[in-house]
Design goal:
422 residues, alpha+beta, Jelly Rolls, 6-stranded antiparallel β-sheet, 11 helices
């Protein structure tokens, strides 16, 4: 049997129940304690796997759990208590690894207070296959939910090609986003998938410290998405970005079908002089320095002793998952703790990726952009959009809104609606 991807409905005959009953396509709890679901007892070869389970619930407490086991339940590979924040549906992702062929069992245990259903179980081998060739990724959270809805709506309107759109959010925000996106037609959300950031980090085997800085965390998560194998290539967007013109993600590829890097060729002396002249401040080893020192340290990390570098500034990244994984491996080889370590040292994920490709994989370095969006930062700029004085340049595809302009999402929506742009 092929190990790459196996899917099971909650009512699949290969999945069994101790205390559940069939309701539609779900296996539903019945007010009794025990295993709601267990199975499929199928053989899986050595490798790393990602299990995605779709739940729906009216009540799920901390006594409920899901685990993955083998050896007829004697060896537990992973366990997680289930936590529910509101009523509704959500996804859980769990990762496990096996070094030899095993019969795998996924088990969901409920107590007598639970009102829980399992709709779908998917097991994917994440060593060798990608679910998609290209995807869009946006890291967001509750304060940006309105922006996220506008971004996705603009993507649906202006994207020339269909592709998955992954919205990565804290698990505690899942139901807020799920309910908010109900304002869109159901068919418009066919390509939208909400993913918990905790699950992405778990797949990458990263445990962030409690109350870890959100700015650094979102950079790590963008890199960690490569480890999920959901897509070979992906474009990252910020929540407060809106497309206002037709966009074809094929434009992010070179003529020889290599994914471009969001970058330009540059001379180190020119980049460092510019950053010094404008007194741009950055972080290096938890100290504030001129940003030129941060970029120079990243370049030195890759043993780039040449006069050349790449130049990146913008809000988008074009990522090749294989190259991201190579970047992480390189960091470990240098004695740094992978994605977490490099962002702790210098929190500039796009520059880390770009300099790795530029220095270590030059034959795959195809610079493009790097900007996709025109920046709108001031209130004056919002008014300029309203009267048509500020428009998107021919080579760009929309607007990136930054504070203080991004503090007025309803005003932005009204202005762009009035202009017929969204």
């Amino acid at each position: 049997m092929v190990d790459n991807l196996r899917c099971y409905q909650g009512t699949d005959s290969r999945l069994h129940t101790e205390v559940g009953e069939v309701q539609g396509c779900s296996m539903r709890s019945t007010g009794k304690s025990g295993f709601l679901l267990f199975g499929p007892y199928e053989s899986f070869g050595p490798g790393d796997y990602l299990v995605a389970i779709r739940f729906n619930s009216n009540n799920c407490n901390e006594n409920c759990f899901v685990d993955i086991s083998c050896d007829t339940g004697r060896t537990q590979l992973y366990i997680r208590n289930l936590h529910q924040y509101q009523k509704g549906s959500w996804n859980e992702m769990l990762a496990f690894s096996i070094s030899e062929r095993k019969d795998i069992e996924v088990r969901v245990w409920v107590d007598d207070d639970a009102d829980l259903g399992v709709e779908h179980v998917e097991v994917r081998n994440i060593n060798h296959t990608y679910a998609n060739n290209f995807a869009v990724v946006c890291k967001s959270y509750h304060k940006d939910v309105e922006w996220a809805v506008l971004l996705y709506s603009s993507w649906i309107k202006y994207s020339s090609r269909q592709c998955p759109f992954y919205l990565i959010i804290p698990k505690s925000d899942y139901f807020l986003f799920s309910q908010r996106f109900e304002c869109l037609p159901k068919e418009a959300c066919n390509n939208l998938t909400l993913i918990a950031e905790e699950d992405v980090l778990q797949v990458a085997h990263i445990n962030l410290p409690i109350n870890y800085d959100g700015w650094r965390a979102q950079q790590i998560i963008k890199l960690c998405f490569s480890k999920t194998n959901f897509s070979k290539h992906y474009l990252t967007l910020d929540s407060a970005m809106l497309f206002t013109k037709k966009f074809d993600f094929f434009d992010l590829y070179s003529d020889d079908k290599v994914l471009c890097t969001a970058a330009k060729y540059a001379k180190k002396i020119d980049v460092y002089k510019f950053l010094n002249d404008v007194s741009e401040v950055g972080w290096l080893n938890n100290k504030l320095v001129n940003l030129s020192q941060s970029f120079e340290a990243i370049s030195d990390f890759f043993d780039n002793v040449s006069e050349d570098t790449h130049w990146y500034i913008g809000g988008n990244g074009f990522f090749d998952s294989d190259l991201c994984k190579e970047l992480e491996d390189f960091a470990y080889h240098k004695g740094v703790d992978g994605f977490f370590g490099i962002i702790e040292y210098a929190p500039y994920e796009f520059f880390w990726y770009g300099e790795y490709v530029f220095t270590k994989q030059r034959d795959k370095f195809r610079p493009k952009g790097p900007e996709l969006m025109a920046t709108c930062q001031s209130i004056t700029s919002l008014n300029d959009i309203k009267i048509g004085a500020l428009t998107v340049p021919e080579n760009l595809y929309g607007f990136l809104f930054q504070p203080p302009a991004s503090d007025f999402v309803e005003l932005v929506e009204a202005i762009l609606n009035e202009r017929g742009l969204i």
